[in-house]
């Protein structure tokens, strides 16, 4: 076992207080686990979540990550008790939201499997993932306006990009919840399934994605996300360079050869 493999094993087998982790083949499943407060997102939970995500991102055996909660709540929001006595200076100096960037920079595809409440920080966390599978009971929303603040973990930015200015304004300025069906119609989620089929559906999507070249998955994710951070010209240039770069990989040679030979490709991530 190499030093890297030993470090990855130690990280992925870590014991957490606020989340649960498991691996099924090439799929890692991370479950938020603060049921007594509907998976409210406190700093400790977010630190553990970032640690777990980075560990699975470094594990070559894992190709896709699923993030989920409980049937009743994906995450009902941030832990208000943790924030209510903060001042502008203290919350700035602590900069707890910087932990979210660690999740944003995970290179592997992340699927959110959302049931029940995904409000405030819970909605922002789901939107930080790359795809969202929702149960019929899922509720999304940014109710921060009701407690005198605004979304602070990307809600104003990601929601606007996902559903457009007018709908994002309505959701954020009213604080009203959005049903799974409405979220689907707005393009916020990929699919709605019955509660009992939620994790199976997320796994099915994850398995389909996990069959692809890990290098191509990484480049594709980075290229899609580039549209958030760049002009169209910059995004097109990044996409083009990534496309060209993949022709230096073994997976590209194997994928095209397998296509010509009409057989399944054996991608190895090199």
Number of helices: 13
| Low-confidence runs of at least 5 consecutive residues | none
Secondary-structure element string: HEEHEEHHHEEHEEHHEHEHHHH
Structural class: alpha/beta
Count of extended strands: 10
The second-level CATH architecture of the largest domain is Alpha-Beta Complex
Distance between the termini: 19 Å
The strand order across the widest sheet is 1-2-3-5-7-10
Average pLDDT confidence is 90
How many structural domains are formed by the residues? 2
User: CATH homologous superfamily of the largest domain?
Assistant: 2-enoyl-CoA Hydratase, Chain A, domain 1
Q: What does the main sheet amount to?
A: 6 strands, mixed
CATH class of the largest domain: Alpha Beta
Q: From the 3D structure, determine the CATH topology of the largest domain.
A: 2-enoyl-CoA Hydratase, Chain A, domain 1
> Strand-residue fraction?
15-25%
Shape: globular
State Rg: 19 Å
Can you give the helix content as a percent range? 40-55%
Notable features of this structure?
2 domains; 270 residues; alpha/beta; globular; 6-stranded mixed beta sheet; 2-enoyl-CoA Hydratase, Chain A, domain 1; Lyase 2-enoyl-coa Hydratase, Chain  A, domain 2
Structural notes for this entry:
The protein is an alpha/beta fold and 270 residues long. The protein has 13 helices and 10 strands. β2, α2 and β3 form a beta-alpha-beta unit. α11 (214-229) packs antiparallel against α12. The model has no long low-confidence stretch (mean pLDDT 90).
In short:
The protein is an alpha/beta fold and 270 residues long.
């Amino acid at each position: 076992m190499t030093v890297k493999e030993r470090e990855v094993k130690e990280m992925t087998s870590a014991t957490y207080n606020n989340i649960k982790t498991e691996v099924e083949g090439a799929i890692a499943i991370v479950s938020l686990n603060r049921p007594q407060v509907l998976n409210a997102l406190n700093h400790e939970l977010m630190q553990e979540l970032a640690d777990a995500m980075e560990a699975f991102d470094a594990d070559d055996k894992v190709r896709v990550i699923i993030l989920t909660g409980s049937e009743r709540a994906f995450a009902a929001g941030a832990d208000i008790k943790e924030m209510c006595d903060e001042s502008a200076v203290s919350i700035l100096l602590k900069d707890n939201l910087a932990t979210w960037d660690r999740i944003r920079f995970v290179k592997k595809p992340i699927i959110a499997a959302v049931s029940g409440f995904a409000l405030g920080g819970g909605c922002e966390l789901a939107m930080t993932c790359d795809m969202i599978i929702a149960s019929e009971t899922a509720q999304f929303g940014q109710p921060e306006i009701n407690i005198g603040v605004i979304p602070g973990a990307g809600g104003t930015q990601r929601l606007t990009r996902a559903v457009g200015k007018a709908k994002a304004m309505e959701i954020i300025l009213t604080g009203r919840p959005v049903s799974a069906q409405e979220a689907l119609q707005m393009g916020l989620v990929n699919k709605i399934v019955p509660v009992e089929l939620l994790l199976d559906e997320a796994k099915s999507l994850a398995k389909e994605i996990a069959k692809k070249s890990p290098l191509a998955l990484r480049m594709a994710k980075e290229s899609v996300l580039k549209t958030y951070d760049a002009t169209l010209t910059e995004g097109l240039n990044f996409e083009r360079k990534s496309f060209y770069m993949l022709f230096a990989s073994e997976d590209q040679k194997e994928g095209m050869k397998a296509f010509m030979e009409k057989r399944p490709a054996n991608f190895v991530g090199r």
